Queue: 4 jobs
Job 1
Amino acid sequence: MLATVTGWGINAALRALAESSGADIVTVYYTPFSFIIAVAFGSLLAGFLTGFYPARRAIKMNALDLIRYQ
């Protein structure tokens, strides 16, 4: 999130600098929407996969055995 906001700020500053010098519009920072969706989906998938195995393993264990173990 911080990187996105920083990128937008740098892009706005460079665009203002280019426009003040009479140059065409400059876009330095560009993130396609499809990339944002892919990253969000990948993060959700990684979180699900890394949480699924420990939760599945915990379901199979007896709670009393775990309390006695410690």
Job 2
Amino acid sequence: MALQLNDDEVHTPARLSATVMVLRDGLQGLEILMVRRHSNSGVLGGAHVFPGGKLDEQDCLIQPGSLDQPVEALHRRLNETELDHSTAAGLHVAALRETFEECGLLLHPGLAPEVPAQLTRQLSEGMGFMDAMRALKLPLPTSSLHPWSRWITPRTPSVS
């Protein structure tokens, strides 16, 4: 089957984004977290997906001490030589932010139970993700992420 793309679709570069596969050992074996997209969504409505989304400009504005690893280490871990250091770090931030926004999961070891609610409140009041984490005196837990693969999202969903 051949797909016809218009000129805008052909010349639009892929957007940088991050997706997180959350895994844990369960009683029955490996468990994987997926979220179900709203059925009215214009893109893949009702599909089960891993949490994630687009890189926001704010994700790349890294303040000293806001991450639990140096920006240079995050750049090396991605092994994407065409990315600058702040974009590589920003992709880690986007992964953490999107995971929290989409399913309320903050990948931070030893987290006090009230912290996610505090973070949600700060975000609803308009504070940015990194600013809210800094206000809570929590560095972003980039060490909880392990780069696995690089995928390019297709322009159109597959047809069943």
Job 3
Amino acid sequence: MTGKSRLLTVALMLCWPLSTAWADKAFFRPLDAPIATRQMKPKSQADPAGQITCTYWADLMVRESGTDTPDPDDAVLVPLSPGQARPACTARRIAGSVALETEGYALDGRKGRFLIWFASDPNGAMAFKVIDARGGRILFEDGVSPALGQSGVASLGPGVLRLRYRRGYNAACSIMKDGRACWSKLVAQGKVSPALPPLDRTACKVAYKGVAADDPSVILYDVEATIDASGGQSHISPRGPAACLPTP
């Protein structure tokens, strides 16, 4: 990670929870509060690990590195046995640790056996992923609306995570420029639900005021996602109608 910027923009700090955020600061709520969090500052500007952030629950530790940058490295998951002492928050390798595919993502929090991560430096829709805390498998990936001040709801069923949120998808075309042709293309590609009423230029007119019509659209609509950890299956139910924003 040498050479990466260690300065986060003010906008990023204000708009999005970083890895130490949970409970009322997390996007999805309510989440399982950790029993402790620790941070280790980088030893120098050339420290390849950067800032290290460790989040502890009774049965689990998650260690992130590079959390003082918009582009964190892959995190590490460490299962903990009952009564086991919490490992130190350092860059040293920990026996039994599992590497996670979370480069460029920060921990939003935990709900049961599900770990939720958000892209640290998004453009347009804010990408997130759900990872199984038992082994580190990626179970689900999607995006949420880039509009500020929003949050999602997380709840648990038997082996199932349910998330309610306003979905955001970065389209490659512009509804404002191409109208129904853009929408039809997204439906045909499976990028948006065919159950939603189609968007046209009229629906995007206010959002595009003062913005070039050919700026690609971010498609927004409410959804409920169900994620099954045991089978690795997920399902998204749209709760339309849809709206759009120009990509920032």
Job 4
Amino acid sequence: MAERSPTFREFFPEYLAAHRKPQTRAIHYIGTTLGVISLIIFFVTWNWEFLVASPLLGYGMAMPTHPIFEGNIPKTFEHPALSFVSDFFMLYLFLTGGLARYLNELPPVEASQTKAA
């Protein structure tokens, strides 16, 4: 029997735990914003280059931050739809000042999970 997919409520803390470093989150915010702007420009101009650029900007900027800053693999590979929604929710929380509460609820990182300095 196939494993049950997590709900958003179950997945988001795991997603956020994979984005603990502010550098990771900042680059995700920039990529997501540029991706949305590119998509809006596509709908205004119907220039297909902006449609192609949209996911390239969003994912292209975000993906490298995981091995570089976090030492992990992007959650997109495990649950693409939940990860996509979580990215926008994380940005929303950041913009509305609600992110700190969620970050404070994360369990501490175990020594075995941290990258060697």
